Amino acid sequence: MKYALVTGGTRGIGLGIVKMLLNKGYFVTLTYAENEQSVITCHNSLINYEGQFEILKANQGCKLEMQQLVFHLRNKGRIDCIVCNAGKTIRKSLREIQDREWEDIMNINLNSNVFLIRDLYDIISANSRIVFIGSLMGIYPHGTSMAYGISKASVHALALNLVKCFEETGTTVNAIAPGFVETEWQKSKPIEIRQNIYNKTAIKRFASVEEIAKAVEFCIDNAFVNGSIIEVSGGYCYK
Prior knowledge:
Elements: E1 2-6, H1 12-23, E2 26-32, H2 36-45, E3 53-57, H3 63-76, E4 79-84, H4 99-120, E5 124-133, H5 146-165, E6 172-178, H6 184-187, H7 191-199, H8 209-221, E7 229-232
Parallel strand pairs: 1-2, 1-4, 2-3, 4-5, 5-6, 6-7
Helix pairs in contact: 1-8, 3-4, 4-5
């Protein structure tokens, strides 16, 4: 039995990744931050995998909860796959954003992942897989989500730098940079905004959650993919 962690795994992209890992035979620990309803919905959708997963509350903005998560995982003795998916966004420009808002985005999207990998380092098995869910906004500029974009660019840099930390262990570290994905949050966007995004994308649609999960699976299955930032954008051009 191999053990995996998926942060923010109760819905959207995270849940799609959880299902992929369960189908590959992993025991999966998945986390959520605050939405208790998402836990109920998630559990119901995973009913066929009973005994193969656990759901833990671990808000990445709360150091205590993250320390408790690390303690729990260390008691298992090993971990073979980590997918850092949890994140937070805010739609504010440089002149609008407050100090605490900027720090909150950086703590959740970047710092908590650094500390998580650091604190689990010695139980990460040889030949493990670490995958970060970055963002196309970490590659291309976005006028009203500056903090989010910079935090995701930093996540991409984190993946590249961690390659050196795991050199000669067989463990690979990669990041997926999705474009727009058909999650519940995106489905609530007005049709005119969605159409504007379609017009900037060669495929003329959003990605499915399953398509992003397959990109993560590619990183898990191919041991020579290491230190890569993989765009899954449908041919998006921000201009």
